Fold:
Amino acid sequence: MQDHSPRRLQRFAAMLLAGAAIFATLNAAHAQQATAVTINVPAGNLSTALNALAAQAKLQIVYDAAITQGLRTSGVAGNLSVDTTLDRLLSGTGIGYRVKGRTVTLTKATAANAAAGTDGDVTNLDTLQVKTSRYYASGNPSSSSIDEEYISRVQASSIPELVRQTPGVSMGGGVRLQGQSIAIRGFARQSDTRILLDGAPKNFEKYDQGNIFVEPELLKRVEIEKGATSVRYGNGGFGGTVRMESKDAADMLRPGESWGAWGKTAYQTADKEFLETGALYGRSDFGTPVTYDGLLSLTWRKGGDMRVGGGEHYAFSDSKLATGMAKLGAEFDGHEINTSVIYGESNNWGPVAAIRGQLDISLSDIAKYGYKEAARRRLAWRELQDLTTTFEYKYKGDSELWNPRFMASYSSTGQRATRPGNLSPAASVGGLENEATYSDLRIELENTSDFTLSGFDHSLNYGLQYNAHKRDVWMYDIANRNSAQHNYGYYAPWFMPEGTQDTASAFVRDTISLTEDLKVTPGMRFDFIRSEGVPSNAPRYNNPAAGHDFSAVDHTGFTPAVSVVWDANRNLRLFADWSYAMRAPNIDEIYSNQSAQTTAASTSRGLAAERNNTINLGAEFNFDDVLTSGDMFAAKVAVYNNHVTNPVTRRFGTANLSGMGVDGPVPFYWNTPSYTTSGLEIQAHYENERMFADVGLSWMTGTRHGAINDIFGPRTYINDLAPFTAQTALGVKFPDQDFTVGWSGTFVDAQDKTPYNQNGKTYARPPSAGYAVHDIFMSWTPQDGIMKDTELHASVQNIFDKYYEPYLADGITAMPGRNFKISLSRKF
Structure:
């Protein structure tokens, strides 16, 4: 058996470094200054203008909604201080303001107020929802954001469950936490969805085990950038990037307070899941020039077997997750330092492949072993640990040319699976015991320079990035414990090899203001990727004569990109994005192999990098005072097209195994002919004082040259296309009671665009039936009185107890049935 002490030392060193980084901030700093920021607040409703200012200047604005009712402003734009902006916005309104830290309090400027108001006063007023004047506030119709209000309302148990209502985004894997994944715009491989937590990459790609295990209760915001059109990121992410931001003290504190506590309890009936979470946080300068903030949070979630539509309970689908988070920051004179440590653990019995529905137990096994033992023989005990540590430094000084940012992060996800000791399971299902730990050490250094050249304003962002990805994998193949060719059972699975992949990158992008309303952003990125495998301990899978070569291989490439944004008028914004993105093959694709007795035995060091020639076009519409005074309507439309060349595919199929001109052993993976995907996404939102409505539509299609198992065959569909989907919501608000109630519906068409019926039954997803699922929800968030700072959220999901299997569930797992959810939280 392998010695795991080095791995434990690595984990301990990572925790030690993270702790040192946190304590180091006690001597570092940052304080918010009254420096100028770029402001662009349009004319119109004063409340809408204040929303825009709050988002652009990162302020919290508190006021009684009655004092702004019916008021309008002529707008303001420029590189201005907050005081100047407020003076202009509120000019002639009779409204005064007071600034304390990041909180702005608005009051009617009366003599009584002037006499009574002091800096020490605590004003118990309504908190303004932080939204820009553009409702979607994404800067791009291909991006979608999920805010803290939505996170609280849906009460999701996992990140895939949280994001699945976003147009173009699908959840795969079913109801088991350790089997869930995210697909975006028809890209379902784990490497096609880039996942970042506070900027740290999460790259867990263990076969059939899901890829994201972050607790949703930690998050204040999730930004989903669909497509691969930004040079800020590289090497993969063809589907898109999911950026998760965890909560910090500034998000939790009540106005005028320097410390606080928060607690929440929740329950859902489908799996009898309990949630308990709490946080302690504070922000103060302690009488020094340095402002510190910190947050400690603990979350515990545990659920039983999941009940799916119709009443069936999936055996051994229970789950539990315990997570702790510590964050600390400091500010002083333009310097800002933030550090965090997030650690979570999960363990349970479950099917060997976590992406499964009901446990299949034969009657003969039940008769032979009894039910409990017959079930255990199909299970694995999984222990999962997930660690994310970050250290970030930013500086905003007087120079527009020098605004640096430095970030270092370490992320590690490890899973150990053990089968019952009275079995001799095959290596293809992980043997008797296996462990896989995927880690990433990432360093980023960048700067943004704002200047004017040749009459045009430029915002030049450029930087260097380095990412060291490592895969530690081992297995005990007890069935071959007496075989020297299998190293007596101890080796890394041939389909999940060990190795490293180091990426060094440089990027530059320049946002050029051709006019006040027209901006173009050209960019370029360069990636150097070095991959190196670890030779297998088993001679059967480390045989040069069979083409087993684990030596290093390099991939390099430039990624050009350009984006154009045109504010045609105050109601219409148009977008266009293009890039030629790159994805280097991962460790599994390069170094997986088979024995010399098979047809495709060789490792695949000759793989070329995939390329995606991708374009997004879109429009965003925003209107105020549409039907009634103070209401608003927003919509966005996005169309996209991806043309992927050199896609990497596992080599199989009789038509593909005849050598195909390969000189020497045939590689296990190879580059197949190109494919194309395209689609349309539409979102719309209407809101007034008493109600709101949302609709989201997503449609996609795609075909490839030939088929995965026959590249010279007829054109076939892409395997991971989501069917046409419509998501709707309708809510009614009772402002005087701080109460909201509503309905939401998800309508999914049948999916028959699959290669399953095009000679692809061995690899393709089967067709799926259409379905409709209805939910109802309510929220009570009192703004004054004894229950102020309390939130109550309740919902009934799948109210008609519909049995349904989404397309990406492969026809083997259904989704939860009727599910009552309730949560109660309070700040203290």
In short: The longest helix spans residues 5-24. Confidence is low (pLDDT under 50) at residues 8-35, 110-133. The chain is about 10% helix and 45% strand. The first strand starts at residue 37 and ends at 41.
